[in-house]
Amino acid sequence: MAQDALTQDAVATSEPKAWTANDSVQPKRDVWQAMRRGFRGRCPRCGEGKIFRAFLKVADNCSVCGQDFSHHRADDLPAYLVIVIVGHIIVPLALWIETDYAPPVGLQLAVYLPLTLVASLALLQPVKGAVVALQWAFRMHGFEGEADGNSGAGGAAPT
Fold this sequence. Notes:
Number of helices: 4
Strand content: under 5%
Structural class: mainly alpha
Helix content: 40-55%
Mean pLDDT: 85
Order of helices and strands: HHHH
Largest sheet: none
Shape: elongated
Distance between the termini: 54 Å
């Protein structure tokens, strides 16, 4: 009973801290610039360093500005986006050719399957880079607590 009274007194005397807009003011990041940089395989922060260390392996950090990428969470989104993009290109093309020219099925398979494979592999890394850059620009998945040293001019940011 004495502990309950102490707990109630502690709760009653401690004032909750009110959140204000100034508590979390952070400079906005240019989303489109970051996505362009990521699409090109460059660091979304400085635009200089590489974002990938292998075909689809994101580097742990930028070699130029030191931006940490180890906590990104692109997961399956790049693959889904590539499927949608390539599907919206190949399917109308295939339907147009089929309805107007009616080539043999074997010829269609010989053309569309490799075309789909090449287009998917060509887009997978740029789309993943853009997704990681989008996460950086929106301060998602561990990118939120980092200061921006980039003025937006494309130069290296201080570490």
